[in-house]
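Lecture 7 notes: from sequence to structure.

We start with a single chain of 302 residues. Read the sequence below before looking at the structure.
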Amino acid sequence: MAILVDEGKRVLVQGITGREGRTRTNLMVEFGTQVVAGVTPGKGRQEVDGVPVYDTVFEAVEVCGSIDISVLFIPAPLVKSAALEAIEAGIKLLLIVPDRVPIYDVLEIAASAKDADARFIGPNTLGVLSPARATIGMIGGSATTAREWFIPGPLGISSRSGGITSSMAYYLARAGLGASTLVHVGGDAVIGTPHPDVMRMFEADPDTKAMVMFGEIGGSQEERVAELVAKGEITKPIIAFIGGKAAKRGTRFSHAGAIVEGTRGTYEGKVESLRTAGVTVVEAFGDLPEVTRRVLQEREVL
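Now the structure, written as tokens:
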């Protein structure tokens, strides 16, 4: 199985006629994702890679039937209205690709999603990819690259960095270790589906046998994962690498969601909490494949 996206999910692309929308729709369609519709106000009755374009999400749903996922390639100031429209139209999963979406807009989207029993990933995410099944967003860059780089397997990959999401899956695959799903949770300070939520989904997925997590300084996502492990809510093994070891207080590391303020969100605090809970934390990124293989062998997964 896979989490969040597979070949059976029906996908809508908001902003499909823009440069990014067109390019990434091509990636998704060629990879095998079931993209059934696109939306750009005022551009209805066009097509992009054979995908019909509509003026509104409501029109797309009315004509095409139920839609499971909406992928947003919308300028940041317009994300809120587009996301709220998708939620109101009954779509239960949104992938919000743009960065720099105003925090208050994200909070309003979160409140609307909660009321509608919906979920969103991002903002500032490269997307989600289930090898050999489907992808949403832009992981891999092209369908050819994504098929070559990422192979199916027992690992659930969750990352706060888009580039590291791809890198982890690539180097693990070169070591013969495939993935059930790759999830870039997003790099902004406020996101819809952080590491703890992704770990719960991997825990419930019978085909995911272990998780590989890339964490960073800033925030408390990794500490909350440690709490879930300590409470026994997450029982599958987790292998983690935490970025930002050399960062000083007040340093922004890579993007908005990774900044140390005072004693909160430090590298040392994250590593200690994870190790105390029983998570395997590697010191060097390059050690992930070897250590992951060893953990899987110890758990008799391989």
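Residues 19-31 form the longest helix (13 residues). Keep this in mind for problem set 3.
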